[in-house]
Automatic annotation (TrEMBL):
Domain TrwC relaxase: residue ranges: 10-366
Protein name (Swiss-Prot/TrEMBL): MobF family relaxase
InterPro entries: P-loop_NTPase (IPR027417), TrwC (IPR014862)
Species this protein is from: Microbacterium horticulturae
Superkingdom of the source species: Bacteria
NCBIfam families: MobF
Amino acid sequence: MTVSMRVMSAGDGHKYLLRTVAAGDGERNLSTPLTRYYNADGTPPGRWMGSGLPGLGRGQFHDGDGVTEAQLQLLIGMGRDPVTGEPLGRAYPAYKSAPERVGERVSALDPELGPTARARAVAAIEAEESERGTRRAVAGYDFTFSVPKSASVLWAVADAGTQSLIVNAHHAAVAEVVAFMEREVAATRAGATPGDGAVAQVDVRGLIATAYDHYDSRSGDPHLHTHVVISNKVQTVLDNKWRSLDGRPLHAATVALSEIHEAVFADHLTRLFGVEWETRERGRDRNAAWAIAKVPEQLVSEFSSRSRHIDEEKDRLIAAYVEKHGRQPSSTTIIKLRAQATLATRPEKEIHSLAELTTQWRRRAGKILGVDATHWACSVTANEVPLLLRADDVPLDVVRGLGQSVVTAVGEKRSTWRRWNLTAEAARQTMRYRFANTRDREAIIGMVVDAAEAVSIRLTPPDLASSPAVFRRNDESSVFRPKNSTVFSSGELLDAEERLLQLAHTTTGPTVSLETVERIVRKPDRERLVLGEDQTSALMEIAVSGRIVDLLVGPAGAGKTTAMNALRRAWEKEHGKGAVVGLAPSSSAAQVLAEDLGIATENTAKWWQNHLQAGVSFQPGQLVIVDEASLAGTLSLDRITQLAAEVGAKVLLVGDYAQLQAVDAGGAFGLLTHDRDDVPELVDVHRFTHNWEKRASLDLRHAHTDVIDTYDEHNRIVDGDTESMIDAAYTAWRTDLLAGRATVLVSDSNESVTALNNRARTDLILDGTVRGTRESELHDGTHAACGDTVITRRNDRRLLAGRSWVRNGDRWSVVDVRRDGSMLVRRTGGSWGSSVLLPTEYVAEHVELGYAVTSFRAQGLTTDTAYALVDSTMTRETFYVAMTRGRDANVAYVAVHKPDPSHDGPHPGQNDEVTGRSVLISVLQHVGAELSAHETIAVEQESWGTIAQLAAEYETIAAAAQRDRWAALVRISGLTTEEVNEVIGSDAFGPLTAELRRAEANHHDLASVLPRLVGARGFGDADDIAAVIRHRLIAATARPVGSGRSRIAARLIAGLVPEAMGSVADDMRQALDERRDLITQRADAVLGKAIADDAQWIASLGEAPAAASGRERWQLAARTIAAYRDRYAVTTPSPLGGRPEATAQRIDHARAEAAFTEIRRLNAAAKVAQSHREPSERTSEGRVL
C-alpha cells in the first residue's frame, strides 16, 4: 500500500514529526522543500494544507505555509487555534486511568462491608476497570503517502532537477488525494447518540492538515514519503461549529485511497517523463506491485531490505578474520560470519542531509547497474510523449465491463462489500490506463464503481422513514445513513448460500443404522481410544440424520479426528470400503486427513479441477468429509454439495466457527452452524495437559475477556515492546527445542515471522546444526543451507517425494544445497524415500524458513508447546488458534507498541498506558470472521430498525424542528441579551432543548418554569449558563405534573422518548410521526419475540393479569422495559441490566424501573384478586354439589 493511516493521540505525540526536521532555514532560492534543504541535516519543516485552513485565526494560513512547533502543539497537542489559542469546539476529553477509576469506586464502597465481601468487590471492580482500559483523546490521523519503491529509487539517484520534478509529482498527487478525501470521505457526527457516536453524519468545511516530507527509511534506504497529519478538528457546513472528524470513514477508505494515490502519482510521473509501468509479483501472500518498467527489480531489491547492514557487518568481520589469521575464510566460515552479522544490533538511524544520502545511494546503485546511476536515471526519464486518456475516451461498454469485473474480483474474496471495497478494486483495474488529469481518473473510477453497484445486490434496507430537507445531502441521501455505508453482495453468493441452507435441511441422504454405530463406538480404535459421551452423541446424530449436508463442530483439541475415524469405520461397515472420501481447503490439510483416517483425500480446488477435466465425481452412498470447513469458500462448498446431492452422497463439514475463516468469500460454515439449534458439537477438550487450560481454552474460544486473568495467573502472558517480545518468544522456543520438545513460534506479522526465522537460523548456524559451504537465497531475502527447516509454499505434483508430492505448507529438512541453487530436502520426520530435489526457480520463489509460522499455517498443528507473538492487529480467531496448539503450554508474548516501519521507535499515536491485558482485550473484541450474505441481511435489518437508532433520529429531528421555539423561550426567560446569545451559542444548548422537550412531555408549563429557574440564582460563576439551566431543569421537572391519582401520564413514545409537541414544519412533523410509529412497532415486536421465545427476562415479569384493564397496563409497562433493553442493548437475564452511568440512560432507566414497579404492583393485585376468587369458587362448587 502507498497510503497507511495511524491514529494520533492528544499530548506530545506530534513531536515525533519534529525529531528529524532540519535546523535553520536552508537555501530559500531552491524550488521545493526537499531541494531547499538539500544540504541541511534532517528533513524539511512541515507545511500547512487543506481547504479548512481559512477557519483558523484570521484566515492568514495558506497551502504551503510553514508550520512552527508551537502551532503544531496548539492544534494537534491541545485542540486549539494555532494563531489565537482559542479552543476549537470542545476541549479534548480527559480520561481517567484505570487505577484512578478503581480508586474512586473502591472509596465509594459501603464501609460496612466485611473483609471477604470487600475483597470480592474490589477484585470485581479491578477486573471491570482493567477491561475498560485507558482511553486517549484522538488528536488527529497520520496518513503516510509513499511513492512506489521503483519511483523512490529513481528519485534517489537522479540529478537535482529530476529529483525536484519527481517531488513535485509526489506533492501534487498527495494534494489531489487529500482534496478527494475532503469531498468524499471527511465528515463529522451531530445529533443524538444511539450508542456508537452521534446519529447524523454531516459535511464539513474541508480538512486542516500539516505535511512533513521524509526521504529515507529507518534502514537509510530511499523512501520518499510524506506524513499528512489531519487534525481531528473540523467545522460543519451546517452551523460552522467545530466538531470532531468522523474516524470511521477514514478507516474504511484507507485501502481505496492508497490505490487511488498510486494511480494518480503514476499519471503525474508518466505525464512528466513518459515512463511506462508494469506489475511485478511480490510473493504468494502479497498483491502484485506496480513499478516503473525501466527500473530493474535487482536495483529495487538493493534498497528494500536490511541486507546492506548485514553485508557491511559481514565485510567487517571478514576483514578482522583476515587480519587475525592471515588468510581468507572458507565458505563455511563465511556463512557463520554472516550469521554473526545478522545478530548485530540494527544501527540507530542517523540524520543526514539529502545531499549525503544521494551520494551514498548513487554509489550503491552504480555497483548494481554497472554504469553511472545519474546517467542511467536520465535514460529512464527520456521517453516519447505518452498517450493519455480523457474520461470520454473510455466507451460505456468498457466501463460496464470493468464494473462486472470489479464485482467478480471483490466477490472472490468477500461475501459482502461496500462502496470503498469496490472503489479500491476499480482503482486497481484502471491503474493500467494513464489519464490526462486526475479529474478524468476520478470520473472513470466513479463510473466503474456505479456500474459495479448496479450489478450487485443491496443488502442494507432502504430508509425506513423520510428525512426532512435539512437532513438530506445534495444527492438526496439521508444524513442518518453514513456515506458509502450500504452493504452489497452478489446473486451468485446469495443463491449459493440458499442452496447450502436447503441441503442442510434436506434429509434424503444416505445413513448408517444406529445398531452399527453403537457397535463401533463401544470398541476402542487402533490406538485404544474410546469415544467420549459428546463424541458418541455427535456421531449418532450425524449417522442417522439423513441430512445431505451435515456438520461436526468442535473447539481445538476436542477430538474431531477421533470422532471422524469412528464415523469412517461405521460408514464403511454398511456402505463398503472406499465409501468415505476426504476433502480439505489446502493440500497439507488433505494430507493430514488422509493419514489420520486412511482414506483418499484431495484439496477442494484440485478436486473441482479433476471433476471438470476428467469427470471425477462422488458415488451414491458415499460420505464426503470436508475437514477445516471454516476455511472453505462459499462457492467451493456449494459446488461440492450440489454434486453430492445429485449422486446421492452425504457431505459432512467438520470445523470450528471460532477458528480461522476462508480466504475466499466465506461465512458459509458459520451460517450453517447458526441456522440450526441441534448442531452436533464436541465440548470436551482432550488436547491439553492441564485441566485449567482445557476450561480456559473454551472461554478463549467464546472471547470471555476475564479468561485473560486466568492465563496471567499461570504466567502465560508476557508483555513489552515488539523487539523484546520477539527475543523472549524466541528464547523460550529455543530452550524447548534444545530440550527435544515439539514446539512452534506463531505470529500474524510477516515481518515478525521473518525476524523469528532469521534469529532461529542464526543460532543454529553458530551451534553447527545448520552447516555447509553453500546457501540458497529465498524470496524474502533470507537464506537456507544444509540443516535448515523450510516450508514449501506452492503445490507442485511434478515434484515427487516418495509416494507423495510437494505441497503448500509441507515442512522439510534441507539435506544439501547444490551449486545452481537447487535444494535437496527430506520431509520432516520422513525417511530417505521422502526426499526430493527442489529446482532453483522453485527454491527462489516458493520456499521459506520454517521455524516460525503464521496462525493460518499453525491451524491443525499439535505440539508440546507454542509461543505466540501477539499485537493489536490480531483477531479473536487467529489468537485462539495460536493459543491452542501446545499440549503442555501456550504462552502469549504481547507487543504493546508496534514499531513504525519507516522510522525508529513507536508511532506517536501509540497509547503510553497500553498494557498486555488491554491489548488482549481488544484482540478478543476484534472479530475477523466474515458474516455470510444471509447473516448480513439480518444484521443490517436489525441495526437500522433498533429503537437506539430510531430514537436518536427522532430526537435529532425534534431538536432542529423546535430550535427556534426554544430559542424564543430562552429570550423571554429573564436572561440578559449577552447571556441569551451565550446560551444559544453553547454546545450545551442542544442537550438543554432535549430537556425542555422532556419537561413539556411531563406537562410542565415551560413559560413559567424556565423564568423561575433562571431567576432562582445568578450565573456570575457559571462556566456554561446553558449547562447550569439544564441541570436545574432536570431537577425541577423529572416527574410528570401532579401527584397520586391526579398525576398526568407523560407523553412518551414506548414509555421512553419524550414526544415533540407544538407546531413544526410539515416535513419535520411527517418525519417525526413516522419514527414515532416505528419506535412503537419495534418495542411491540421486541416484546412479542421475548414472550414467544420465553426469554429469561420476561419470566421475571410474571404472567400478565387476566383482567383486560390490568393486562393492558401490564402490556404497556412491559413494552417500556422492552424498549429500554433495545435502546441500550441490554442482554442480561435481569430485565434492566446494570445501573447506568450516563445521565440520559439513567433517566430512561428510571422510567423502565417505574414500569417494572408497575408490573409488580399489577401482579400483586392479581394475586389478591385470585385469592378472593378461590374461596368463592369453592363455595359455589359446594352449593352445586
